[in-house]
Each structure stands twice: as structure tokens, then as C-alpha cells.
UniProtKB/TrEMBL annotation:
The lineage of its organism: Bacteria, Pseudomonadati, Pseudomonadota, Gammaproteobacteria, Lysobacterales. Residues 1-18 form the signal peptide. Keywords: Signal. It comes from Pseudoxanthomonas mexicana. This is Tetratricopeptide repeat protein.
Length: 213
């Protein structure tokens, strides 16, 4: 069986990107994503992400050259994949990858480099060949590109930390999680920030336990 790590906890994973200037419609998707990901009970999330995907698709279709719209469609696709799991998730993450790659071609710095961070998160969470396209080397490259654009951001540091944790680089992961937790608050992103900090704190505790052994 083909299982994905629940990317809804990551994606961005899906991903709660910086308090960026974007269209109102994209911001509506962004804010609704945070509500679903961090406030809805798990049994309700899949249906809610399905509904949000329809909304994000319409925005992306209306503004096909808007990197922010592509990024947020990719984030919603990734989060829905995390809720679905199994083989049904593979098509969704392939679509998300295409969105992030298209966003990078349009504007690599959009949303503080969120396309790089999101793509990196996919590469380390999706299984590798022959089931998926996962690639740890590509993940490291993409995540570092995201960090280069947003070195102090909560998400860029969180996902790099989670990748290092996945690689069992406990000391590196601890440093990156601590940096994520020290990231400045993002006005208007209180729900996303609070949820991400909880995730970072929980994983930092796990990393610290490994370092204590």
C-alpha cells in the first residue's frame, strides 16, 4: 500500500506562509486553510479541504499568472492528499508539485519563497520511486532555497527542521525548530502561527529526547 505522511500537519505543507500582500480571494483561501487544518476535528477535514480546493481552483483559473494563487492551490492539494492518504493521494501531490513548479517559474520569491518550501516538503514526505517522486536530495535543495529567501520565517525553518528530523539529524533539527519557534509573529496569521508553534514544540520535544539518549 502507498501511504503518505499526513501532509496536512506539514503543508503545508501544506504550508501557512507569511502575511503576504495578495488578492483578497487568495487570503480567504489562506485563512480558511488555517481554520480547517488547526481548528476542525479530523473527521471533518477531508470534506472541508475538498470544498476549499474548488474555491482555490477557481481563483487559480481566473488568475493563472498569479504565483500566490498557484501556491495556495498547491497547499490545499497537499493538505487534501494528507487527509486522504493511500493511492488516491498520489494524483493530488503530483498536481501540487506542478503548481509549485509553475509558481517558481512565475515568481520564485512569491509569498517569501513558499513555493520552494512547499515543494521541499513534498519531496521528503512523498514516498520515492516506484510509488512516488520523493527525493531527499531535492528536498534539501528546495528547503534551503526557501530558507535563503525567508531565513527567519516560521515555516521555512519548521519544514527544514522537520526534514532534518526525518534524516535523524537531531542536533540540526533542534536548532532549526528553535529558530522556527523564535520567528516573529505574522499579523493576521494568528491561527496558523499558533498551530505551527504547537507542531514545532511537540517535535522539538521528540528531538530533545533523542539527543538525551
Amino acid at each position: 500500500m502507498f501511504f503518505l505522511i499526513l501532509m496536512s500537519t506539514a503543508l503545508l505543507v501544506g504550508i501557512a506562509v507569511a502575511g503576504e500582500p495578495a488578492t483578497g480571494s487568495v487570503n480567504q483561501v489562506r485563512d480558511r486553510w488555517a481554520q480547517i487544518n488547526y481548528q476542525l476535528p479530523k473527521p471533518q477535514r477531508e470534506a472541508a479541504f475538498e470544498e476549499l480546493l474548488h474555491q482555490s481552483e477557481k481563483i487559480r483559473q481566473a488568475t493563472p499568472r498569479d504565483a500566490a494563487a498557484l501556491i495556495w492551490e498547491g497547499i490545499v492539494l497537499s493538505s487534501l492528499a494528507g487527509e486522504k492518504g493511500g493511492m488516491g493521494a498520489l494524483g493530488l501531490v503530483k498536481r501540487a508539485r506542478a503548481d509549485f513548479e509553475a509558481a517558481i517559474k512565475l515568481d520564485a520569491g512569491a509569498l517569501d519563497g513558499a513555493a520552494y518550501t512547499s515543494l521541499g516538503a513534498l519531496y521528503y514526505q512523498v514516498p520515492g520511486w516506484p510509488l512516488g517522486f520523493g527525493d531527499d536530495a531535492a528536498a534539501r535543495t528546495m528547503l534551503r532555497k526557501g530558507l535563503a529567501i525567508d531565513p527567519d520565517g516560521i515555516d521555512a525553518n519548521y519544514f527544514y527542521a522537520d526534514f532534518l528530523r526525518d534524516q535523524k539529524d537531531w542536533a540540526g533539527a533542534r536548532t532549526a525548530f528553535q529558530k522556527a519557534l523564535a520567528a516573529p509573529a505574522r499579523p493576521g496569521r494568528e491561527v496558523a502561527d499558533a498551530g505551527r508553534r504547537q507542531e514545532a514544540q511537540a517535535k522539538l520535544k521528540d528531538v530533545t529526547a533523542h539527543l538525551a539518549h
